[in-house]
């Protein structure tokens, strides 16, 4: 095991933006060697990402346009965890909102930081099986198309760049590891 890393110590913090889904602050930190540096931090609630697998062994992914990158992406259903909501409850809600299905067998795969260099978001990954109809109204600001892909095609889709979303790639690899 490697050497422990000494933490940086916050010296000052300045709130830049306080929005609906994120906050941005700029912090001055003192490094272990005594030097000072600036850290820009995006605070975002924890979130869930779900790999839904239907009875035929197909994964249900969603295609949606992502304005910041000016293109559509193929993604696993995902979303933020609301205040007071548990990760498994958020996973079921997101499944219902995005693909109109709930899972009777939701399995926790683990967690990962989405972009720890500047963001606090911790992703909780799930695989969802035994899917049953249970639609909720989708979020008003989302236009989503649900697509089905054979489980055994996902490695190729990731390698070819057809799937380029990091949370989706991480969750798919985690789910593929459990499906063998």
Task: Provide a descriptive summary of the structure in words.
This protein has 180 residues and is an alpha+beta fold. It has 2 domains: 9-44; 47-178, Nucleoside Triphosphate Pyrophosphohydrolase (Alpha-Beta Complex). Helices cover 18% and strands 46% of the residues. It has 3 helices and 10 strands. The protein has helices at residues 87-99, 154-160, 166-178; strands at 9-18, 22-30, 36-44, 47-52, 58-66, 71-75, 78-80, 101-113, 122-133, 144-150. The chain has a 4-stranded mixed sheet. Strands 1-2-3 form a 3-stranded antiparallel sheet, with no helix packed on it. A 3-stranded antiparallel sheet has the order 6-5-10, with no helix packed on it. Strand 2 and strand 3 (36-44) form a beta hairpin. The radius of gyration is 19 Å and the shape is globular. The two termini are 30 Å apart. The model has no long low-confidence stretch (mean pLDDT 95).
Tell me how many strands there are: 10
Share of residues in strands: over 45%
CATH superfamily of the largest domain: Nucleoside Triphosphate Pyrophosphohydrolase
Give the CA-CA distance, first to last residue.
30 Å
What number of domains?
A: 2
Strand order of the largest sheet: 7-4-9-8
CATH class of the largest domain: Alpha Beta
The percentage helix is: 10-25%
Shape: globular
Largest sheet data: 4 strands, mixed
């Amino acid at each position: 095991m490697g050497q422990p890393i000494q933490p940086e110590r916050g010296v000052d913090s300045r709130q830049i933006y306080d929005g609906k889904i994120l906050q941005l602050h700029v912090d001055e930190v003192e490094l272990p060697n005594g030097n000072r540096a600036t850290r820009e931090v995006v605070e975002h609630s924890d979130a869930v990402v779900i790999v839904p697998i239907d009875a035929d062994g197909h994964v249900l992914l969603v295609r949606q346009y992502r304005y910041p990158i000016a293109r559509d992406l193929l993604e696993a259903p995902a979303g933020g965890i609301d205040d007071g909501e548990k990760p498994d409850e958020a996973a079921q809600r997101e499944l219902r909102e995005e693909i109109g299905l709930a899972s009777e067998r939701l399995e926790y795969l683990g967690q990962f930081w989405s972009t720890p260099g500047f963001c606090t978001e911790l992703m909780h990954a799930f695989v969802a099986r035994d899917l049953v109809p249970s639609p909720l109204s989708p979020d008003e600001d989302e236009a989503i198309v649900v697509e089905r892909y054979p489980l055994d095609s996902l490695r190729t889709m990731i390698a070819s760049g057809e799937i380029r979303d990091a949370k989706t790639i991480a969750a798919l690899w985690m789910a593929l590891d459990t499906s063998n």
